[in-house]
Design brief:
Elements: H1 7-14, E1 31-34, E2 37-43, E3 46-47, E4 50-51, H2 62-84, E5 90-101, H3 109-124, E6 131-137, E7 146-154
Parallel strand pairs: 5-6
Antiparallel strand pairs: 1-2, 2-7, 3-4, 5-7
Domain Endoribonuclease L-PSP/chorismate mutase-like: 9-145
InterPro entries: Endoribo_LPSP/chorism_mut-like, RutC-like_sf
Protein name: Endoribonuclease L-PSP/chorismate mutase-like domain-containing protein
Length: 155
């Protein structure tokens, strides 16, 4: 059942501004819908200053990675809004895959990807709670510090 929460107002109250959706950097699309499921391609952290790059545990801290994951959350919310026209069509954040560009032996991937997960719960409440994997990678495209993809159920 749809709720009467205004998610645009919720974004405003949280200080989250959705930027225009960028075109994919390679041969893929930002989102594929099949039935009532949306599969969002992996996104890395990008701001007006460019990509946030680095290796967590080497030249970036867990806290910096957490903030970068929050940036990705805003980018994925922008993809959702662009595709759906209205975030109130989101029924549930189903699954998140968070990949962390990190050093060998680094074991705090969950704390980094919590940045993304925290935003989903801040915005959607219980609907934002999701299944998740947070894994370490030796490298990510263009040396981004995190890449996050997700699956969303819609009304």
């Amino acid at each position: 059942m749809k709720s009467n929460i205004n998610f645009d107002a919720r974004l405003d109250s949280l200080g989250i501004k959705l930027d225009p959706v960028a075109a994919p950097l390679a041969n893929y699309v930002n989102v594929v819908q099949t039935g009532n499921l949306l599969f969002l391609s992996g996104k890395g952290p990008r701001t007006a200053d460019g990509l946030i790059t680095g290796k967590i545990g080497e030249d970036m801290t867990v806290e910096e990675g957490y903030e970068a994951a929050r940036v990705v959350a805003g980018l994925q919310l922008a993809v959702l809004k662009d595709h759906l026209g209205d975030l109130n069509k989101v029924k549930r954040i189903v699954k998140v895959l968070g990949m962390v560009n990190c050093t060998d032996g680094f074991g705090n991937q969950p704390e980094v990807i919590n940045g993304f997960s925290d935003v989903m719960v801040e915005v959607f409440g219980d609907r934002g709670k999701h299944a998740r994997a947070a894994v370490g990678m030796n490298a990510l495209p263009r040396n981004i510090c995190v890449e996050i993809e997700m699956v969303v159920e819609v009304y």
